[in-house]
Predict the structure.
Amino acid sequence: MSRAIPAKLIEDTARELTARAAIDIPRDFREGVRRARDAETGRLPRFVLDEMLANWELATAERRPMCADTGLPRYYARIGNEAAVEGGFVALERALRRATAEATAAIQLRPNRVHPLTRADHNNNVGVHAPEITYAFEPGWDFLDLTTVHKGGLFGTDYRMLFP
């Protein structure tokens, strides 16, 4: 078994990934929007595409989120069966929660999390089952692959029904 992955490294990495997910648009996507804008003949659609491109440039330059509603931070952690996390999986989750709270303040993510029953808001996107972390385990790996996304609207968010 390889040496344990430091929880601090996970926290620092998650904070950086959270910032990138909120601020940076992949180059190929930007180029696709530019091509769409250049091909667009309608005044209103072309205006919207121009504004999207301008907003992305500004967000990148100022290191601010590209959208006022940054959705809910989520993590996807693929962990090797041979990997070890310093402090175990509890430390992994704590590191992701700290990174989320710190990124919410530092890059001004919109705090979208409240307690499901009391509606208490801590303004940090951390709470009951938050941030959501999806785990997958990979045989033969001795490392952790971490991805983060910000999901908003009703497309894969935390909308759930409470059963009686």
User: Anything to note?
Assistant: Residues 154-159 have pLDDT under 50 and may be disordered. The longest strand covers residues 72-80. Helices lie at 7-23, 27-39, 43-62, 88-106. Strands lie at 72-80, 132-138, 144-151.
